């Protein structure tokens, strides 16, 4: 486990967040990186932190972490983005920074939580009926959502159905179904955790 960052208790929120970012950048320990990224993702849930997180370029840190080999880092990074993108400035930054392709890549993760956060993030980045970023509802994304809408996982199935109904036009869904009928779609469904035996 990583140690708590060494921060003077009087430096406040910005200082604490800066210490976390510095620790993430300087540590060699994967466990410490995971813990710090999890903490940053949790701080991203609080709107009072948005300005500080933008100032410290945590959005970029999350986006960069989506390309990591470590699935746990990817899970925490997409969770952090999901928490941040309800804010208009963060949403705009993610869209302008080319975040859509990084996020859609998370749809093929074997980690269930990563996939759920990716779908939710795409929903937050979309505006119903908006076409300013057509890649949010591109045919491969819609095909993926169609596949997820058949999942045995209730959370994934429900999110996919909401995405298809609220963010895709009927013609987009029909086109994706047509393409699926003529191609072999190979995005695997995420693993679900087996229930723990008492």
Give the helix tally.
11
Strand content: under 5%
- DSSP helix fraction: 55-70%
C-alpha end-to-end distance: 26 Å
**Tally of extended strands?**
0
Q: pLDDT average, as an integer? A: 88
Short description:
The chain is an all-alpha fold and 198 residues long.
What does this protein structure show overall?
Pfam families: Arm. ARM repeats lie at residues 57-99. InterPro entries: ARM-like, ARM-type_fold, Armadillo, ARMC7. The protein has 198 residues and is an all-alpha fold. Helix content is 62%, strand content 0%. The chain is built from 11 helices and no strands. The protein has helices at 12-26, 30-43, 50-55, 58-65, 71-84, 88-96, 99-105, 112-125, 139-148, 154-167, 170-181. α4 crosses α5 and α8 (112-125) packs parallel to α10 (154-167). The longest helix has 15 residues, at 12-26. It is elongated, with a radius of gyration of 18 Å. The protein starts with 11 loop residues before the first helix and ends in a 17-residue tail after the last helix.
């Amino acid at each position: 486990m990583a140690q708590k960052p060494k921060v003077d208790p009087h430096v406040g929120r910005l200082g604490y967040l800066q210490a976390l970012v510095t620790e993430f950048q300087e540590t060699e320990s994967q466990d410490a990186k995971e813990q710090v990224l999890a903490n940053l993702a949790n701080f991203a849930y609080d709107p009072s932190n948005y300005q500080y997180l933008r100032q410290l370029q945590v959005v970029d840190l999350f986006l960069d972490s989506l390309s990591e080999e470590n699935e746990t880092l990817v899970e925490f990074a997409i969770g952090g983005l999901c928490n941040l993108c309800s804010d208009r400035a963060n949403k705009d930054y993610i869209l302008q920074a080319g975040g859509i392709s990084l996020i859609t890549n998370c749809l093929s993760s074997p980690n269930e939580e990563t996939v759920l956060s990716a779908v939710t993030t795409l929903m937050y980045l979309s505006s119903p009926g908006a076409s300013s970023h057509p890649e949010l509802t591109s045919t491969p994304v819609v095909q993926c959502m169609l596949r997820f809408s058949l999942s045995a996982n209730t959370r994934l199935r429900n999110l996919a159905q909401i995405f298809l109904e609220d963010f895709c036009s009927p013609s987009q869904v029909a086109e994706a179904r047509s393409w699926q009928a003529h191609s072999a779609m190979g995005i695997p469904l995420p693993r679900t955790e087996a229930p723990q035996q008492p």
